[in-house]
Design a protein that fits this description.
The protein has 135 residues and is α/β, with parallel strands linked by helices. It has helices at residues 23-29, 34-40, 46-52, 62-67, 85-97, 119-134; strands at residues 13-17, 71-77, 103-107. It has a three-stranded parallel β-sheet with strand order 1-2-3, sandwiched between helices. Strand 2, helix 5 and strand 3 form a beta-alpha-beta unit. Helix 1 (23-29) packs antiparallel against helix 3.
Length: 135
């Protein structure tokens, strides 16, 4: 299993479309992942799940990312019921606490509506213009 590759030295630029510090939080609270939580509930709680899934959670790699700062952009949405906005804000705050000043865009839509017109075009514009500028 590969880890969050953002800290990989070969990468000079990172764009994150949706973000959360812990994968477990997304699964535990997300509307579209409710069925996964229901299958695990009673066997594990969210704190235990965070520990089990730490290897695939971005929070585990933020310090590594900070060792070799890169240009990073984070895009998330105001009304996301899968990646709750508070998890995205937490991720950005943790990144900033490491001395990294990321470019952040918050789109006024939800998780799935980010893939619908007009938001998919706005999202694509932010991604492409950021990559064009820094690559």
């Amino acid at each position: 299993m590969r880890s969050w590759p953002a800290h990989d030295e070969r990468l000079a630029v990172n764009v994150f479309n949706h973000c959360s510090s812990y994968v477990a939080d997304v699964v535990w609270t997300g509307l579209s992942t409710k069925h996964i939580r229901q299958g695990m509930e009673g066997h594990i709680d969210v704190d235990q799940l965070r520990e089990v899934w730490m290897a695939i959670s971005p929070v585990n790699y933020i310090e590594k990312l900070a060792r070799k700062p890169k240009k990073s952009k984070f895009i998330y949405t105001t009304y996301d019921t899968t990646f709750l906005p508070e998890f995205s804000r937490d991720t950005v705050a943790r990144i900033r606490s490491q001395g990294i000043d990321p470019d952040v865009v918050v789109l006024p839509c939800g998780h799935y509506t980010m893939g619908e017109t007009p938001f998919k075009f706005v999202d694509g514009y932010h991604i492409c213009s950021f990559l064009k500028r820094w690559l």
